[in-house]
Structure formats: structure tokens, C-alpha cells
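Hi Y.,

Following your request, here is the sequence exactly as I used it, all 367 residues.
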Amino acid sequence: MTGVTMRPECVQGHDRPSTTDSADLERPAQDAVPVDDDQPRLTVAAVARRLGVAPATLRTWDRRYGLGPSDHTSGRHRRYGPDDIARLEQMQRALLRGASPAEAARYARTVAAPLPQRYPAAAEEPPQEAGPEPLMLSGLLEGEPEFKFEGGSNTGGRGLKLSGAVPRARGLGRAALALDSWSAQKLLIEGLDADGVVETWNTVLRPVLRAVVERRQRSGVGVEAQQLLVDCASTALRSVIASASPPLNPRPVVLAPVPGEAQELELVALAAALAANRVGHRLFGAALPTEGLAAAVRRSAPAAVVLWADQSHYAAPRVLEDIPITRQRARAFVAGAGWAPASLPGHVELLDSLESAVARVSETVLG
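Below is the corresponding structure, written out as C-alpha cells. Let me know if you'd prefer a different format.
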């Protein structure tokens, strides 16, 4: 099983402030300019911060796709009104779903975009009672209109090499680089619900993780995007574990990284896939020392033990001797790129993929 190393201020003339979560609108002197219809207009920099894109990207969208300020005239600074921002948020929504920029622009121009915030028509007219209003700041919304995106050659990911990736992977790449944790988790949870853990890992999560790591190695930047992606993935995978049906096996499976190993995300993926198969397990994190791991095996009396190692200098055969696997009559498995098959004892089986790990462990404990 190989892994991836890795509010606005009160509008003038109104009694109450508009409700929004955007901190960018708190800069009226520099970013927001009131106009005749009492709706603030934002600068390119403010809108870029709001959407998590570069100002140059907004200028490109304006030049190529006509998604710029609706009242912009030559020689004046661009100022985006609420309707302009709503269209940009719709474009961002489509990009997160994996559309190419051209498709996303077509979507933004076609779909009736919800306003990004509420603006009362007049101070003396109280707002009507209504349910929660959908608000998207570079995310996805429930109940969105049907709009089909055609497949294409878009590599997606805004700076990530994701050639041939599925749309959800391209959206996850964009969300990770925009540090949009809400959308990243939303995309992952949707994928896990629709396709399962193994398919989502292979076609969505692993390609994006690899691309993020390669981008960091190539450019020297992006550690924050990598960490956010790992955290979001761990949260989504653990939600599968938390909501799984009761296990069928009386003796659990112990899952743990070898002492010293910091990489554990693929082990969490294995735990989630096993939980979906109703295989009970005890998942331990990377901070567990050797004596703690030995105690966990001794106290759990497991049917199987899976030790994960991504780095070869942690994957020493002596680790297997320090824990009472044979004494507990447990099947011993190892997984991860760090293990050398030739150095393993005869009673230890190497799991070389997530699919094989799920199959072999499930077969061992469930029969």
C-alpha cells in the first residue's frame, strides 16, 4: 500500500448593518465605495481576497470572459458591485466542481446568481421573514441548478499538475490552493458518500495530494495548502468511521504507524474503508511509542495488526519483534512504501495497495 509522501460597515443611510461574514467589507475607506444605490463596490484587491484568487486572475476573467465590473469605464479603477461579485462566486463554484475556466464563465453568465449578501431596499422597510439564505464565499451550495460541464483537457487545480483528473479532484485542488477548507471537506464527503473510500482515495485524494507535494517540491511554497488538505482529508475520512454501522468482528484490528513515522493519512483511509465494511478496529496515531503500541496489542487481543511505515528508516523488522503479535495469535500485516519485502519475517504479509489491504484484512477477520 503505497502512500503520498508529503460585514461590511453600516451602509450609509441605513439603520442596521448588512449581515455577512466577509472581513474584506470592513475597509470602507480603501476597498468599498458607496454609490447611488447604497450598495458598496469593492476594489479588485478586496474581491480577490474574498474569493482567494490573485488580482491578476480577476483581470483575466474580465478580459477573456467579460466577468468584470458591470459599470467599468476606460481610465477608471475597477469597482465590483454585489451583482458582479455574485457572478464571480458562481464562477468560483463551477471551478470547484471541476469545470474549466471557460465552462465556469459560461455557467456564471447562464445561472441566475444569488446576491452574496442582503441589502434592505429602504431603511423604513423591515426585512421579510425567510429561511436561511445561502451564502457562498468560494464554496458549494445545496440545491444548485442543474448545469452539465463537458469533459475537456483542463488540467485544473490552478497551478497543480492534474492532467486527466476527474472533476472532483480538480475542484479539490483549487479548494486546497485557495485554503478553502469548507469546500475541500464538502467535496471529499460527497465523494466518499457517492463512490466509497477506496475509489475516492484513488481518483480524488491521492492525485491531489501528489500534485500538491510535487508543486511544493518544485516551487518551495505551499506547505500550508498541503497541511490543510491533509487535515481536511483526515476529517472527512474520520467522519466515515464515526458514522459506520456496528462492527461484525468480535476481535478488532489494530492499526498503527510504526514508532517515529509521521505519515498516517493512508492508514486513516484504511480505517475508514474497513469501518465501511463493518470491520472493527483500533486506530492509533503517529505519536504512539513502542511501549504504547505493545500495550495496545496486548490489551486489545486483536485478530490482526497492521503496521504502517512510509519511511524506510522507520520500517525496521525489529519493530515487529517488540510487540506481542504472535503471542496474541494475531495475523501480522505491514503496509506503506517504507517496507522492503525481502526483509520481512515469513509470518508477516505486505499489503501493497489500499484495495488489497481492505480485502485481505476483511477476509482475515470476517472470513
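The two ends are 22 Å apart (CA to CA).

Thanks again,
Q.
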